[in-house]
Design goal:
The protein has 404 residues and is α/β, with parallel strands linked by helices. The chain is built from 11 helices and 21 strands. A 6-stranded mixed beta sheet has the order 6-16-17-18-15-19, sandwiched between helices. Strands 8-2-1-12-21 form a 5-stranded parallel beta sheet. The protein has a 4-stranded mixed beta sheet with strand order 11-10-9-13, with no helix packed on it. The relative contact order is 0.20.
Amino acid sequence: MNIAVLGAGAAGLAAAGELARKGCQVTVFEARERIGGRIWTDRTFGYPLELGAAWLHTGMAHPYAARSGGRTQKSDPCNLLLFDPQGRAVDAARCRELAAMQVSSVGRALRAGSLSGRPLSLRQSFEQVTPEPAEEVWLGRARALPVADIDALSGRWDPGADEPPPNQDLMPLEGYDTLLSTEGCSLRLEEPVEVVRWGADVELVTPRGSFRFDKAVLTLPLGVWRSGKVRFEPELPGKAEALSKLGVTLLNKVVLQFAEPFWPEGHDFFALTAQSEGHLGTYLDGQRAMGQPVLIGFASGRAARELEQKPDFEIIQAALEALRPAFPAVRWPRLCKITRWGSDPYSLGAYSLVPPDGDPSAYDRLADPVGPLFFAGEATWRRAPATVQGAHFSGLRAARQAIG
């Protein structure tokens, strides 16, 4: 059987590998000049730097964990040092207590929202429960979690409700890209698919020509799928309504390498509180994973969209201003790198979410096969959307559907 796979990200490579193992002839079309999709390991600084996906969530339960050979670094989101708006460090025990309180308050808000008979944002669901102490508000602003505007998220559905609690998040030390494989398939890089014609079989049209296959597995990022950049002839029945029930959020990174560290060791994250939302408030200490004095700042949702419109100089200045109350010794970085996933034509966003008027069943409907077409990607895996493992498992599912 001759099968095409659109996209060489986690979902596409999982599908391609499974199809090749079952004896299919597999061709992978990738619009970028590299594999990985939203897994993007950059080595221009001399060490692997993850500009996209960075963690093996749930630790050893992750399908890529065995591929890492144990060459990983543990990462605990609760091992953080929180600073109040005046730049004063909050006691470590209190930080863990506040982190637990934040998780609890999210749970209470979602339960309150689920009892409502109308669509609610997560912010509106929060308003249904008792206000929390000011310190917890600080923590929410600093960590920017969940990683989207709480006005843009459904206040009635928890995407992690079906998943077991995480064991331990791990960071692959030799680069996420070393965990990817194209074995057994033909890879066509820098060849975006522009038209998918389907009926008894599949015809793919690219700038280099048209190609015919028995079947195809499509792993388009939700932002690209919604944009209409790939045209389907005929239109896909039932998909437009499902696409309208999901949203796309942004998560961008500001990577700063300094001449020497000016922050205390022993913490995985620093949470820097501002008086308002929408700032660069969460930083990962990259020293243990990268061996260099590196801080990685995260901007999500509205803040990430605003970041993409600014020049690098202004973004770095904003990051340093956020750091300065807690770390007066901060100086201009030696090296920097800034992501703009929303402007990337082959992603048009970071990952999927359910908006206030959305419907989580849309994940399942996007996964439904249509004729010779099969669908994969994090936005088609309801149990763990917005994750690499969700993308991986969706690719395996689509491959198995394609071979019956």
